[in-house]
Design brief:
The protein has eleven helices and 15 strands. Strands 8-9-7-6-10 form a five-stranded antiparallel β-sheet, with helices on one face. The chain is of the alpha+beta class and 377 residues long. It is elongated and about 95 Å long. α1 packs antiparallel against α10, α4 packs across α5 and α5 runs antiparallel to α8.
């Protein structure tokens, strides 16, 4: 089969290579942060984050009945008191969230972290949840989520991640308040002699709360996003006695209800649901790997195809630059025999010359490319 040099011009070759890479790269995906599998009894979720040179993975089985009990709370109740009333969603008495907080406390203690690193570790975990606006995920302009909902839904917007972080930090024993910049929601963590943006609250006290951003990765404690510099913020204390408590009963006394639970009205789910006590594994750690190595490891077969495709196209292009398309020599008439000079001219005209610089096809007698002007070989 004859190779058509004109169909493999260098420009066209580059286009083919570009399209190949675009298609290939679009098929390469970083492993998702959450596994959206669901069983009848639980939602299976997997969370990943990096902290201090270590890559952490945490697989959770969240009871379906627990998630559904929170889903039953109407949006009108959630937003009844606005951002000042999000203590209703700060479920520090939730038995499952308490187990999560205990796991985080245990693993950070075993790792040897001080209080600053413990809080930063939890903050990084929450920051790595994906951002999703309420209007896209729920159809509501404002739909604050309970911590369990944020975990099952694999993320949320600023108030959702702020509520989750504040709940975990409060259960772990740290003082927290909610910080409300214009059109945003964050958390303040109680601390002393730390760096960064902070507020004294109440104003006449000696309690200093440092800003914690929960929606962007790599924000440190006290690091305020630039768009809020100089802006006035509102600070809301968290009243844990007003939190919603679902009517969920654990079949084994893994965690006994605290005395405050009996004094809080259970607004929804009047008929308690009985579920087995959950088993929460420890987060797993391994050294952080370069992204390029992760991609090659996860998509080794695809990379082999890409390399083979590029090699094939390069081979065809090289051959095309050396091959000249030849037209059949016209048969001479029996009535006349061309002279030697005529024969040479016809032979020169029948052989086309290919320009390796721009890909143009030239007459056989041409010495320079008619398109780019460079000398033909």
């Amino acid at each position: 089969m004859q190779i058509n040099c004109q169909s493999f011009k260098p420009v066209r070759f580059l286009i083919i290579i570009s399209l190949t890479l675009i298609i290939a790269l679009s098929m390469i995906t970083v492993p998702p942060r959450a596994n959206a599998q669901t069983s009848e009894q639980s939602y299976e979720r997997s969370f990943t984050w990096d902290y201090e040179g270590q890559h952490w993975t945490w697989n959770l089985s969240i009871p379906t009945a627990l998630y559904e009990s929170y889903q039953g709370v109407p949006v009108s109740v959630r937003t009844k008191n606005g951002p000042a009333g999000y203590g209703y969603l700060t479920t520090t008495q939730d038995y499952y969230v308490k187990l999560l907080a205990q796991k985080l406390t245990d693993i950070t203690t075993q790792t040897g972290y001080n209080d600053y690193d413990k809080v930063s570790f939890v903050l990084t975990f929450v920051q790595n949840l994906r951002y999703a606006s309420d209007i896209v995920t729920t159809g509501y302009d404002e739909y604050p989520r309970f911590p369990i909902e944020t975990l099952v839904d694999e993320g949320g917007d600023c108030e959702d991640t702020a509520i989750l972080f504040a709940t975990l930090a409060r259960i772990m024993g740290y003082g927290v308040v909610y910080i409300n910049p214009p059109n945003h929601y964050a958390v303040g963590i109680l601390g002393n002699n730390l760096k960064g943006t902070h507020w004294v609250y109440p104003p006449d006290s000696n309690q200093t709360y440092y800003y914690c951003e929960t929606t962007g990765v790599n924000f440190k404690i006290g690091q305020l996003p630039q768009e809020f510099n100089g802006q006035t913020v509102k600070i809301y204390p968290i009243d844990e006695t007003k939190q919603f408590i679902p009517a969920i009963t654990v079949t084994a006394p893994t965690i006994q209800p605290s005395p405050t639970q009996t004094t809080i009205p259970q607004t929804f789910n009047p008929n308690p649901t009985t579920i087995d006590p959950p088993v929460i594994p420890d987060p797993i750690t391994q050294p952080v790997l370069p992204l390029s190595l992760d991609l090659i490891t996860e998509n080794s077969g695809l990379f082999v195809i890409i390399i083979a495709t590029i090699a094939t196209l390069m081979t065809i292009t090289i051959l095309s630059t050396k091959t000249k398309r030849t037209k059949p020599t016209p048969q001479t008439s029996n009535h006349s025999t061309p002279s030697g000079e005529q024969q040479q001219t016809e032979n020169n005209q029948s052989i086309e010359k290919f320009c390796v610089f721009c890909g143009a096809i030239n007459k056989g007698y041409a010495s320079f490319c008619e398109k780019c002007g460079k000398q033909l070989t």
